[in-house]
Amino acid sequence: MAATVAKVAWGRVRLTSLAPLLLLSVMLWPAAGVTQSVEPAARPRIGLVLSGGGARGTAHIGVLKKLDEMHVPIDAIAGTSMGAVIGGLYASGMTGAEIEKLLSSVDWQDAFRDRPKRTDLAFRRKREDEDFLVNLPLGVRGKKLLIPSGLIAGQKLTQILRRATLPVATVADFDQLRPRLRAVATDLETGAAVVMSSGDLTSAMRASVSAPGVFAPVARDGRLLVDGGLVKNLPIDVAREMGVDVLIVVDAGVLLQTRERLNSLPSVSNQALAIMVRRDADVQRATLTPRDVLLVPVLNDVSSYDFGVLERAIEAGADAAEQSRQSLQAYAVSPAEYERYADARHAVRSGLPVVQFVRAESTPNNHERQITDLFSDLAGKPLDPAQAERRVTTLYGRGHLETLDYRLIREGDRDGLEVSARANSWGPDYLRLGLSLQDNFSGNSTFNAAARLLFTELNTVGAESVWDLQVGASPRLATELYLPISNRVRYFFAPHLELEEHNVPRLVDGRQIGEFRVHTFDYGLDAGREFGNWGELRAGVLRSEGKTSVRIGDFIPDSRFGVNAAFLRLSYDRLDSANFPHTGQALRAEWRVEGDGRTARGNDLLSFDWRGAFSFGKNTLVGWVSGGSTIGGSQTNVRNFYSLGGFLNLSGLAAESLPGPQYGIARAIYLRKVGSGGEGVLNVPGYVGVAIEAGNVWSDRSKVSFSGLRNDAALFFGADTYLGPAYLAFGYDESGSTALYLFLGRSF
Predict the structure, then answer these.
(1) I need a surface site. Which of 63, 345, 409, 620 has the fewest CB within 10 A?
(2) Helical packing angle, 59-70 and 96-104, nearest 10°
(3) Is residue 374 within a helix (H) or strand (E), and if so which, with residue range?
(4) pLDDT digit string (tens) for 328-383?
(5) Residues in contact with 575: Cβ distance below 8 Å, sequence separation at least 6, in sequence order
(6) Quick check: 198 and 170 in contact, CB under 8 A?
(7) What secondary structure letter does DSSP report for 685?
(8) Is the previous residue joined to 685 through a cis bond, with omega within 30 degrees of 0?
(9) Rounded to an integer, what distance in angstroms lies between the CA atom of residue 100 and that of residue 60?
């Protein structure tokens, strides 16, 4: 009993002594409880694996859009080929929707061609486009003819990626991107996988997407790199090594074809490659855990090369993510947390730095001087991407470079612009060819074949020596030395000489009774200025000597001539095509003064030619107006006669059958595109069209009138072939005469 009483007493003492501690615990409990309840459990680190697959890989965009919508944050990306491109753009701070907008705006057929758009060509190259229409680039080296390697250097694709990632161009460590990035390529020499985690982001993406046989390999960090899909098309192990906890894997790789489709050499070759690619992908997929999410967009027979189905591929990626919504939302965060995540990603796209120096990377021939002259004024101010791209367009548009690229670099605390160039492997001397054929199936035909030998890069400002030879109905031999005096402002001098012959029909009362042959030898000196890549103002003096002989008929004796001349010519050209223009305008206006130095009065010759094109969908309207006038001097000087007749020049009449000292003609032409034009040998753009023409020639300016116009029309089918534009046409003249044409050569 005593013991019991003692125990009770001791318990009271213990309770009394602990009471303050218990009270303090009760008072502090709410605060401690709140602190413990708001501390979130650390979310898993999520890695995204994006496979290769060419055009099929654009399905990744749909997945990224869905992840943005579901608020699933990505901490690391490992991508191969197109997966590296999409992943690189996302890691640069772009959203899925922004990537879709960018890639949907790309003309993919044009992106896979290295030659600049005609609107981006230097003005001299545009002039060549009109006269030398054979679409076959040839180089001359010694006694050998060279052709391009056939591989796409990727100039246009590189510039698309460069422009998109420029805000992160100074980030050399891909772990500083948000999310972190790894891009996989293949070492072409060793066959080993190369995981790129630093350096220039654009070149990493380009190397990873350089499909062998399509794109030229990319030289990077001392290696020659091609598409990573050859060795690691689904880089799951690369993502694991980035320290993530869970993976979202998107496999848009090529599927194996069934027996029915394996009926050609290309299909069998592609299947052999697909077997190797799929084998590694299956090994990688076998390592996935129950926590990982695998997305396989349903793309069925979508080709890796068909970028025309981009919208369909993006939708397939979004559908694949939607079908796995429950699994993906397990890794979603709150809207507020995702907003913080998105802000952190966007913050990586910091403002562009002030360019403190400009330098040319090791460049060939004379391009270092050209780069320095064109880009040096960008130093000392924030980089203007549009201005830098214009400089790239200017130099690349001269046609002598395979690639021209720029990138931001950092040396210490200084930011600079480094420009690199690679000369054409088949240059610097070139051969251009041209063909012209017109046959009306009635015994009247004309044919000319032309060649131009072009020696370029003769000095550091781009001097050129040009030699032209033409054989056929109008033989011609000519040369010009083009001497620009600056890389920035293109003033130039151009001494030249030319030997040329052509026929002029002799008409009486609209009936041909004979034909003249005009032989001309010209030599002189021109001076002028080019305006960007769209225009030229040129003036010159020359001496013209020769004779006019009677080729057919017996009406006047042969006559010789020798005149001094001066001219002023304005040229403007922003047409997108010399063959079948869709947009733009072109103008050529010239005033020429002639005299023999002895008589008081010579000839003034005025001429102009204007073309304009406007398109809507597959339809194009072309307006074309030409005219010329001889003022003063002899109105019977056939040497300076203009001529009409032939396709789109009063199409119902025979070619050049209507000569005279005064002429004018207007055409309204409608074209509808009926062929898409792809990469196949015979798959060239085709057009059907109709033309309405009104024009005439006159013996005297006083007789020029609208009432004297002849009205003609033409129906035609045209194709933009590798030999130049080709037409099969039917022409009708108001007199009732008709003509059927096979026409090869420049028409517009």
Answers:
(1) 409
(2) 150
(3) helix 367-375
(4) 999 999 999 999 999 999 888 877 889 999 999 866 567 888 999 999 999 999 99
(5) 118, 119, 581, 583, 584, 585, 586, 611, 613, 748
(6) no
(7) -
(8) no
(9) 10
Query: What's the pLDDT score for residue 61?
Result: 96
pLDDT of residue 633: 65
- What is the token pair recorded at 268? 């069998």
Q: How far apart are CA 191 and CA 415, in angstroms?
A: 35
Instruction: Give the model's confidence band at 112: pLDDT under 50 very low, under 70 low, under 90 confident, else very high.
Output: confident
Distances (CA, A) of 371 to 218, 393, 394, 497: 21, 12, 11, 32
Contact of 381 with 408, CB cutoff 8 Å: no
pLDDT digits (tens, 9 = 90+) for 435-494: 888 877 776 778 889 999 999 999 999 999 999 999 998 999 999 999 999 998 889 999
Start-to-end Cα distance in the chain: 126
What average pLDDT does the chain have? 86
The one-letter amino acid at 190:
T
* Number of Cα atoms under 13 Å in the Cβ half of residue 543: 4
The first and second tokens of residue 404, run together, are 């021209």
Q: Which two tokens stand for residue 72?
A: 């699933």
* Res. 211: pLDDT tops 90: no
> If we measure between CA atoms, which residue out of 666, 681, 573 comes closest to residue 626?
666
- What DSSP state is assigned to residue 400? -
Written as one string, the DSSP assignment of 584-645 is EEEEEEEEEEEE-SSSS--EEEEEEEEEEEEEETTEEEEEEEEEEEEESS-TT-GGG-EEE-
Question: Which residue shows structure tokens 């890794």?
Answer: 331
Amino acid at residue number 71: H
**pLDDT one-digit tens code per residue, 45-88:** 999 999 998 889 999 999 999 999 999 999 999 999 999 999 99
Q: Give the pair of three-digit tokens for residue 250.
A: 């998107």
pLDDT for residue 250 is more than 50: yes
Q: 372 near 342, Cβ under 8 Å?
A: no
Compute the distance between CA of residue 163 and CA of residue 425 in angstroms, rounded to an integer.
26
Task: Give the least confident one: 487-491, 511-515, 705-709.
Answer: 511-515
Concatenated DSSP letters for 196-213?
A: E-BS-HHHHHHHHT--TT
* pLDDT beyond 50 at 602: yes
The amino acid sitting at 529 is R
Claim: this prediction has a pTM higher than 0.70: yes
d(CA 602, CA 563): 9
Rounded CA-CA distance 630/699 in Å is: 10
DSSP character string of 490-535: -EEEEEEEEEEEEEEEEEETTEEEEEEEEEEEEEEEEEEEEETTTE
- Contact residues for 398 (Cβ-Cβ < 8 A; gap 6+): 122, 124, 125, 462
